[in-house]
Every structure is written in C-alpha cells, then in structure tokens.
Specification:
Chain lengths: 467, 302
Amino acid sequence: MRKDGYIGRYFSDRNMKCNKNIVHKFVCKDFKLILFLALVAVVLIAPSLTPIRVVQAQQPNQVTLTAIVAEPKERWDALFADALTKLREKHPDTTINIDYRVLPYADTRKQILTAMAGKTSIDLISVDQIWLGEFAEGGFLSDLTDLTNSWNRSSEWYKTNWDGGIYNGKVYGIWAWTDVRAMWYWKDLLNQSSVNPESLKTWAGYLDAAKKIESSTKGKGIEAMHLVGASHSPDMWYPYLWMQGGEIVKQKTGHPEKGTYWFPSYNSTEGVKALEFLRDQVNTGIKPQINHFWGQEFADKKFAVMLEGSWLLGHFNRTEWNGLDKNVGMIPMFPVPKASDTSATMMGGWMLGIPITSTNKALSWELLTIMVQPDVLAPMLEKYAYLPTQKPIAEGQYSGQLANTIPYYKELISMLSIGHSRPSIAEYPQIADNIRQAIDEVYLGVKEPKQALDDAAKKSAEVLGWS
Amino acid sequence: MKVTLEARTGRIQPYLLLVPALAILIGFLLFPLMWNVYLALHDVSLTTILGNWKYVGLKNFDNLIHDHDFHTSLQVSLIFVGGSVALQFFVGMVLAVVLNQQIRGSNTFRALFIIPWTVSAVITGFSFKFIFNDSFGIMNYGLGQLGLAPVSWLSDPGTVVWTLIIANMWHGTPFTVIFLTAGLFSINPVVYEAARIDGATKIKSFLYITLPLLRPFVIINLILITMWSVNFFDLILVMTNGGPLFSSTTSSLFMYRQGFEFGLLSKGAAAGFLLIAMNLVLAYSYIKLLRSKEKTIEIRQS
C-alpha cells in the first residue's frame, strides 16, 4: 500500500475496488460522478469570474433604454411613463422600453460609479448637483454641449440652474428641478410666545425669539429652533456665508499641477461671521440635532421654527395643503445680519445626465429632452412640490396651476433669485466633510470659529492639491 | 498501461475534488485581496479609475500612517471593539449559563434572545437612533420621568461610542448566548454530578468544570465577535456616520468613507489592508492562546 496519506490511500483503495467490478475499462462510476460534479461546479462558477456580458437578444426594431435614478420612485414612474409615451409616438417603427432602477439616495452615487467603473451600459442617470464635478472629471458623463446648442433651450433655464450642469465649460447635465431652503414656523407657537415672525428675519431677532419660544414651550416636548447637527450641516451654513458675499472655493493661480485651480475661501471673514452665528445659536440654548428627518420633525410639531427645504411640504398630507398657511408660516429667507441685508439660500435638486457608456445616446438624449418638456415635467412638479428650473414652467402658463396647488409657491419661487449652488468639483465631498468637522468643533466648543475654519481650510487645500 | 492510468486518476482525484472550493476561494477571496493590494500600491480615485493608474509604492500606507483621522479611528476602534466584545461576552455568558439551568421556559427565552441577532444591523441602527435621540428619544424621556438630566447620547464625543457599544451589544449578544449554549450542552452532566458528590459548590463547578471545558467555544466565540466588531460599520454609519468630530469613526467606517464617500479608492484599499492585518493578528493571538492552554492541559493530564 502506498504511504501517501489518508486521502490518497482512500482513493487508491476505492479505485482498486472499482477496478474489480467495472464496466468501463479505465474509470470507475464514482470517479465519473466526481468529475461530473467538478465540471458542474466549474460551469457554475466560471461565468461569475469572466467579464463576459450576456446581452439580451433584441429584435431589430426593439430598444430598451436603461436608467439609474434616486428615490422616491413615484416621481420617476410618472415622469418615465409620460415621456415614454411621447418617445414612442415619435418612433412608431421602434418598440422602445425603459428599464429603470430606483435606488435610495445613499446608494445611487455608489451604484452609478460602480456601474461606470465596470463600463456597464446605462443610458440615463439622475445626478445630484454636487456629484456632477466628480462624475464629469472621472469621464463618466457624455458631453452634451453640442446637443444642447442645437436643442436651443438653454436660455429658458435660470442661469444658476443651467450653469449647475456645466463643468469645465462643457454641459454634462440638465438640471430638471430644484428645491430651496426656507424658514418655516408654527403660527400658534409663535403667538403663544409673543414672537412676531418678522423678528425672525435678523440674526439678533432670531436669537431673541429662540429664548422666548424656549421659555414658553419648556416641558411640552417642543424645541424652539431647529439647528442641523447632522452630516449635511454645511448645507445650512453656506447661506450665511453667501449672504455676506463669501464663497466656498475660489479660483487661484499657482497650483503646483493645474496652474489655476480651486482654493478654499470659506475661512474668510464672512465665513467666520457665519460660523459665529451658529455658535451664538448654541450659546442661546439651541441644540444641534444629530438626527435629521428632513422636515418630518417640523410636521410633527417638535420644533417651532425650522430652516428646511421646500420638500418639507411633502410631509403634510396633500389634503392639508389648501389651508396650510393658516397654521404654518413661511419666510422666504435665511436670517440676515442686518434687516437691510439681502438673504441667500441653497438650491439642490436633480439633474439628468447620459453616461459615457450609453449605447443609445441619441435616443437617450431624445428621452431626456422629453422628460424636461414643460408639459411632461410640470404635472410631476405639481404633484411632489418640486420647484422648476426653467422659466416656461416657473413663469409661464403652468405657474398659475403650480401656485394654486403648492403652498407658498410664489414665495418659494422668489427665492430662486437668491439661490446658490454648491461647487461642482470632484473634491467637494471631502471639502464638505472638512467644513462639517469645523462646525462640529464650534458646536462642541472645542475651537473658536476662526481657528476651526482655518484648520479645515488647510485640510481642504491639501485635498485640492495645494501642498 | 492500465495500472498507470488508474494510478494517475487516483492521484488526480483528490485535487479534482478541491477544484470547486479552490475556485471559490481564488475567485472571491484571493483575487479581491490581491486586487486590493494592487489598488493600494497605485493612486486611484473615482475620478481617475478609467484613466492610467499611477504606481505610488507604499505612499498610500505612509499617508495613512501619518493621517491623524486614521489614528483617531484606531483609538475609537479599540474602545468600540474592546467594549463590545467584553459586554457581549460577559452578558452572553451569563445568559447562556442562566438559560442552561433547569428553569421553566428556558427554550422559549433562547428563541426570544436570538431575535436581535436576526434583525439587520441597519434596522438596529435606525431603532437605536430613535431610542437615543437627544431631544425626543425614549431614553431621555425615561431619565426625565425619573427626575434625571438628559444625556447627549449621540452628540457628545465622550458618550457616543458607548451608545454604539450598547446598540452593538444588543445586536451581537444573542450569538454568544447561542454559541456558548451549544458548548454547555456538550459538557456531560455526569461531571457536574461527580463534582457535587465531592462537595463542589455551583460557583466552584462553574470555575473549575464549566469554564475549562468551555474554553474552545469561548476562544472561537471571542475570535468571531472580535473580528465582527472590528469590521462592523453599518450600524455606526446609520446611527452617527462617524460623528461628532470623528468620535465614532471606527477604522472600518474610516475605510468605507475614504473609498465610497470621498472616492479615494487607493487610500480606502490601504486602510482595508491594514484592517485585514489587524484581523489576522487578533485571530492569531486568540488561536495561539487556545493552543497554549490546550498544551498546558495536555501536560497536566499526562
């Protein structure tokens, strides 16, 4: 007997035994079975290890467009359904379908990037405004400049909204709809506290009102003012920076690699003053809220005053929209240092872009343009209380309809003129994280505003390649 | 000729049997690991992934070693893992021993205790986020009812990691309970009977019979819960996203944020590699401990 271990001996013995009773000349039945199982395993595993992409066979006149978009799903269902009907009408000889995946916000960026890195063919994606720079820099988005030039609708967009889709002078996304942050308050709670809503408009008045409301709501499970302490806290600080003329980043010459490039400018005097106002709020007794429920906390009457996006309306039942202004007030601004100052706000919203991997670019562009057509887009905006980025909807025939349905629509629209957007640069997520850290340090009293911002700006400069 | 072929097939057979397992290991473990190393040695971010990958040697590891935030994340990991493992193990052991007594309904309790482990970490995170909400959470409400001051569970850098440990303890302890219960079942009751006849108290039986015989289970349990705690990040991501001020950013969350939030794939890969190294060192230490104890027992028995 061979002395090559237990397993070797076992199989050797098995083969010898098999050999005595075999039908086949060389191999026994067991061995055949084992080989078969091994083969099955290899067949099962191999496809997952090879980059072969199985492409569904399609009829010559059949096209399926693919898309990745961010939740909530219902808005896309409505938009895609209407747009697809119109697209099919334009192409009666082709059977066109749309296969779209709706993902939670947090997963959308990751999934899109993974798909792009893997060169997966996708025809349309929803792009958050802050992702555009990163996606464009990575070469994931198709350059739409020539298409938009021949489309000839760019002048119908508000300049800020059109510019939001541009990166390095090229158009990569069409900003479909937007949202603005405004000041919301419960009228009865302010009345009980003898606070005039007008007083909320200035920094001093806001802090004073906080004290009054706090004393009248104490022990009732209601906080006076909402202050964001969650990861998007920079978004609620930028308006205070912008309203004083400050900027998050500025172009600067002398970059070691790029010549002229972005440099952090948020640690300016304006930035420090803006952060001092947040510090003053904390000192007044306003607690930064680590958890954020995007307006639900206000709708639940847990806060008397909240600076929140226009999507807050979505937390109220649509049947309540008609008489909402009786209970809930809205001031279309962020508090300003002095009453004579002009306020500012931040705009968000979604853009539509065509990935570089799209295999149906022409048709995707056609679909995109239909989706942003006023007659297709306006009904969806009306239903979900989103704000338009294009004048024909905001100021044209649809404006009356939107104003009748969406509470405070006109006031919200008026904020577009003071709306700013965050920089569309690849390094933005890290810069925002640096600012978030500075805000946290001030909230917790670890650093003074200037020191916190200077330290954050130093990190941001490194991130931007200034070292 | 016939014999030669049979001998050959006999020699090949064991290796063929290993093919499926090896294919899975190579495809899903070795290849990603090597790819991770390759990524860590280049300068790749989400914006350069489709371009040329610049070789940078150990620069990413060097950056990581000199990154203050990474140091903080290691400290946070140490507290989080230490606290989680200690509490999960202690509470799990107590519950397993108590449920192993002849008490009514112990099987029902065992079934109930496993529920937290079956709940996903994300759902656990969201639940505890509500429970520990500084302003409206049930914990502070309860403290208020008792006349106590509210605690900043999630917004105080000194408290937040302990809040996460409590949440992780709730989520992870059932595994220890089940695992150690299996170990307790494997101990022959005759041993306890003999000890009782010899006059051993329950505490002495636990210390001199239960613990030594349970040792292999304890070590494996410790290896598993330690490694899971080191790699655990979804609950933390949901509850705090690493804040405030990095005070709840563990190394695994640091790695995730570098790779997927900031798009710094190479830095994330380097952090991931260091995490693997940490896991291996921990597992090796535990196994070494187990073997040394086994040797001691063998020597004593001989």
